[in-house]
TrEMBL record:
GO terms for molecular function: ATP binding; cysteine-tRNA ligase activity. Monomer. The keyword Aminoacyl-tRNA synthetase applies. One of its GO terms (cellular component) is cytosol. This is Cysteinyl-tRNA synthetase. Residues 1-212 form the tRNA synthetases class I catalytic domain. Transmembrane segments: none annotated. It comes from Helicobacter pylori. GO terms for biological process: cysteinyl-tRNA aminoacylation. The lineage of its organism: Bacteria, Pseudomonadati, Campylobacterota, Epsilonproteobacteria, Campylobacterales. Keywords: Aminoacyl-tRNA synthetase, ATP-binding, Ligase, Nucleotide-binding.
């Protein structure tokens, strides 16, 4: 984590020294399966648990002289934006709901799916796993319906539940970086190479489908 933060900090400083004004957004996906499971085990809220790690991470980056970002949105603060983006995908027929209430992105509707990571066969998508009622193995979850006491859910027009990991990032980018005269604006999307697939691939897919970019 420190390596990636330092790399992005060096890029930012280089751009600023070259005369560019840089707005750097570093988000925290604090609605996550691992966080939820640990929070339930320790009888804490996800916000309470994630804040411990966010504070520790920030202290470490300060010690490394990494500059503070312009904004640090948290997924838990942008639920309305995520719901709106999922509603847009449903309205445009890029997403579908299965019987248990979960909502998936229909990757067959995106002709460019796989172009970022160059994953182009069903074998390569096996890490996502096959879920009953999914149309394609690579279809990914946008909204997870509330499953009961061992889960966390938020009331929304989509029903009680929580967003999938990938939709959190795209929604926060839209809310923090979109310009008044453009539906979606970002110059550089940085992230670890280990997230290229499926995370960045799925981010790119749902963004194309929702915003036409």
């Amino acid at each position: 984590h420190a390596r990636s933060a330092i790399a992005f900090d060096l890029l930012r400083r280089t751009l600023e020294l070259s005369g560019y004004e840089v707005m750097l957004v570093r988000n925290f996906t604090d609605i996550d399966d691992k966080i939820i499971n640990k929070a339930l085990k320790e009888n804490k809220s996800i916000q309470e648990l994630s804040s411990i790690y966010i504070e520790s991470y920030t202290r470490d980056l300060n010690a490394l002289n990494v500059k503070q970002p312009s904004l640090e949105p948290k997924a838990s603060e942008y639920l309305d934006a995520m719901v709106h983006m999922i509603e847009t995908l449903l309205e445009k027929n890029f997403a579908y709901r299965v019987s248990n209430g979960d909502i998936y992105l229909d990757t067959s509707k995106d002709k460019d799916y796989g172009s970022l990571s160059m994953h182009n066969s069903s074998v390569e998508f096996s890490r996502i796993g096959l879920v009953q009622e999914k149309r394609l193995e690579q279809d990914f979850v946008l909204w997870k319906s509330y499953k009961g006491d061992n889960d966390v859910g938020f009331d929304s027009p989509l029903g009680k539940g929580r967003p999938g990991w990938h939709i959190e990032c795209s929604s926060m980018v839209f809310e923090t970086l979109a310009l008044a005269n453009a539906p979606y604006q970002i110059d550089i999307h940085a992230g670890g190479a280990d997230l290229l697939f499926p995370h960045h691939e799925n981010e790119a897919c749902q963004t194309r489908c929702a915003f036409g970019v």
